[in-house]
């Protein structure tokens, strides 16, 4: 079992719709969770971080964390073509070890 | 803003050559990392460092070494490049060992070994 799992996609949504990206992790001791966006040929850039159970909103983005289910998600409201990218889930466990998922490719169709 | 600079963006090297990838960060971060990213495999940690002259192996250290002589600089060394080391290499840094510190990435170095 991979430590951090994501569906590779592509996930296709129409412009203006809500995109839902999901991530599961295996280490119950994980404490910090991050979503990065990576455009093709570019390096990852941080979108959001979340540390406690529940929702965290930032503009069109909402991160959701459920530690009991070992599940973290990212919702993108009013999806735009510029949101088309690969989204990486990252999880930090003990000793600052950060593990990345392989990413979900999102395509927003105009 | 945090800036992580990778000096070489695109390199083509021959099998057996020694390759140096340089990385500099300007925010006095304690932690520095080297990842490689390959299609379908995601980001894999090669080496990381929590302090000057300290280094720790990541998940795939074989065929690589690192050097951190100064806090701001972390170098990745391929002692004898092989074709299976063709990849995009990403340097990153974070503030310290506290949990929840964001990792900031450089722009990446595309290495092709022929």
Summarize the structure.
Chain A is mostly beta strands.
Please outline the major beta sheet of chain B.
7 strands, mixed
The oligomeric state of the chains shown is: heterodimer
Strand content of chain B: over 45%
Biggest sheet of chain A: strands, sense, closure?
A: 6 strands, mixed
Residue ranges of chain A: pLDDT <50 for 5 or more in a row? none
**Spans where pLDDT lies below 50 across 5 or more residues of chain B:** none
The radius of gyration computed from the alpha-carbon positions of chain B, rounded to a whole number of angstroms, is 13 Å
| CA(first)-CA(last) distance of chain A | 36 Å
Report, as a whole number of angstroms, the end-to-end distance of chain B. 37 Å
The best one-word shape of chain A is globular
The helix content of chain A is under 10%
| Tertiary shape of chain B | globular
The amount of beta strand of chain A, in percent, is: over 45%
How many H/I helices of chain B?
0
Give the helices and strands of chain B as they follow along the chain.
EEEEEEEEEEEE
Secondary structure class of chain B reads mainly beta
Helix vs. strand class of chain A: mainly beta
State the largest interface: A-B, 21 and 22 residues
Radius of gyration of chain A using CA atoms only = 13 Å
Question: Which keywords apply here?
Answer:
heterodimer, A: 110 residues, mainly beta, 6-stranded mixed β-sheet, 5-stranded antiparallel β-sheet, globular, B: 114 residues, 7-stranded mixed β-sheet, 3-stranded antiparallel β-sheet, 0% helix
Architecture overview:
- The complex is a heterodimer of chains A (110) and B (114).
- Helix content of chain A is 0%, strand content 55%.
- Chain A has strands spanning 4-5, 11-14, 19-25, 32-38, 45-50, 54-58, 61-66, 71-76, 85-92, 98-100, 104-109.
- Chain B has 114 residues and is mostly beta strands.
- Helix content of chain B is 0%, strand content 52%.
- Chain B has no helices and 12 strands.
- Chain B has strands at residues 4-6, 10-13, 19-21, 23-25, 31-38, 42-49, 56-57, 64-70, 73-78, 87-94, 104-105, 109-113.
- Chain A binds chain B through residues 8, 31-32, 34, 42-46, 49, 51, 88, 90, 92, 95-96, 98, 100-103, and chain B through 31, 33, 35, 40-43, 45, 50, 90, 94, 97, 99-108.
């Amino acid at each position: 079992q991979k430590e951090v799992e994501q569906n590779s996609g592509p996930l296709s949504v129409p412009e203006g719709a809500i995109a839902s990206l999901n991530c599961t992790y295996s280490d119950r001791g994980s404490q910090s969770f991050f979503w990065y966006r990576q455009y093709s040929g570019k390096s990852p850039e941080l979108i959001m971080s979340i540390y406690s159970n529940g929702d965290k909103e930032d503009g069109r983005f909402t991160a959701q964390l459920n530690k009991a289910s070992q599940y973290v998600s990212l919702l993108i409201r009013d999806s735009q073509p510029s949101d088309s990218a690969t989204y990486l889930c990252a999880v930090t466990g003990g000793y600052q070890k950060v593990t990345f998922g392989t990413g979900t490719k999102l395509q927003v169709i105009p | 803003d945090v800036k992580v600079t990778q000096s070489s963006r695109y390199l083509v090297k021959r099998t057996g050559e020694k390759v140096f990838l340089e990385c500099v960060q300007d925010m006095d971060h304690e932690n520095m990392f080297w990842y490689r990213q390959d299609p379908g495999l995601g980001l894999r940690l090669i080496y990381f460092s929590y302090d000057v002259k300290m280094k720790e192996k990541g998940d795939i250290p074989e065929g690589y070494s690192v050097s951190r002589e100064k806090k701001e600089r972390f170098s990745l060394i391929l002692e004898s490049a092989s074709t299976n080391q063709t990849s995009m290499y990403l340097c990153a840094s974070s503030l310290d060992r506290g949990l929840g510190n964001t990792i900031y990435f450089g722009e990446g170095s595309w290495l092709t070994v022929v």
